[in-house]
Amino acid sequence: MPQPLNNRRNADEPGCLKLGSPQLPGRGNFGPAGGLQGLDEAESERDVMRLKHRKSASVLSLAIALLAPAISACGGSSGGSGDDGTFTLRVPGAPNSLDVPKSYLLVNTQFIGLVTEKLETISPTGEFGPDLATSVKQPDPTTLVYSLRSDVKFSDGTPMTADDAVWSIVHAATGISQLAGNFKSFASATATGDLQVTVKLKTPDALARSEIAALVFVQEAKFAKAHPDTLGTASALPVGTGPYAFSSFSPQSTTMTRNPHYWGKKPAPAKIAVNTIADENAARLAMQSGALDGSLVTNLKTVPQYQGIEGTSTHKLPPNITLDYLSLDTSKAPFSDPHVRKAFAYALDKTGVMTTTYGTNFEPAGALSTAGEFAGLSPSASVIQDFLKSLPQYSFDLEKAKAQLAQSAYPRGFEMTISYNDANPWQKLVVLNLQQNLAKLGVTITPRQVTVSEWIANIYAHKGEMQLIDYNSASPDPNWRLTALTTKSNMGANGFNTAEYTTPAVEQADTALVKESGKSVRLSAAQTVLRAVADDVPYIPVGAPDNVYVLGSGWSFRAAPSIFDLYWNGTWVSALEAK
Known about the structure:
By secondary structure, this protein is α+β, with helices and mostly antiparallel strands.
């Protein structure tokens, strides 16, 4: 899904789209995570038969028959199976640039982060770990002081200094960077020592440290400054400190070889070959033949087929931080009427849509946050699970939908057009499901298929009464999504509050989420926002797809990495070992 985007922005700040993997950071990421969720023809036929026998009034079968996989060229293989020390990685879409601020595509950070490292790592429970920075101090609410490692060299042998970190932070946080919208509180970064960097914030920001940890990819500043226009292209490959160095780059493939000056323990693969394969069937055949060693599964219904390949292993990467949801523009009719919004919530067979799209590889979503996003705030998993279950739920029930519509300004129904992204099958299923179910209540919905580009443009322009969005958080903190979707400063064009929704209580809670550091205060604030959203229904959560990684027969994980290790920490490769 292009999943992932930025959160808290003023209406005049630049947009920041991220195509991610099941997901999709800015203070989140939206879009197809991992790529396209295509369904093959055989699956479509089986799903049609299964859905015809559902006992609910929801009908999803028409959507299934219309889905076909998108196929793109696959770059040449570099051996698989680990027999020559090469790990061949599949990505569903190539970035336009290896300089991340120029082309933020979430799924591609899994290999770019092996070259341009981070200052810190983020754990599934929200703790920070050392990487290029050995420690971070916060002497006051608007200051972060980073102490850097003294034994780090770039792949060309040049020692890393504070100037490199400063340039990388400013490069990500300012100017035309696609990530700039995520650094709303950023004021400056300066070298306050050979190996010390001081970051100043405009206002206190509880997420500033995690934003820097997730979104700043450290490069050699001297090389970057010498190639301002071509940096990230095949003629100016970024120079980093990670275990690998870029050796080639094209839309079809990227190759990386060991960094001879790497400061840490060398990972198992001597070489990483990255091939662009959009189609899941093509990727599966490549793994079956031994030409592919690792891939995030973009069509989750194919997981059992991967498991049927001898020697392969599948791994769910915790935590689940992706959400598929509907945004209802509360400033426009008919969704300015809360009864209409609730009618739509009851009329959608969310379980049917998610099962048809992802099989068993998803979690139901009854709130705008997943349980995994509370790992850094909640005292226990049971506490947050109990809270999420206590919120108003809108399970599929056409009688309740009918009752809500009868209380609205449109008791006899209305007509509207809903656009969906043609790269995201769950979106098509949602629109067709609502079309058929609400037709019984007098509501006429006309589906309109749009390209990914038009879908993105519509989101940023707040064009249309309903948006269908995939969104990833970049740390286990509900702030990443909630403050993006509910604050007044994010309303209007280029803001991500596409529902144009807030209340005084929500604004107060969002302020606490941003400025307060105490866990109990921030947990209470997040709960306030989630209750308001559940009561007022500006957004309809649909479900949370899993992140499933598959390894070929030549490789295994010592321990399955987290989704943060894959996307933001750049540490997943250290868990690999050749069989």
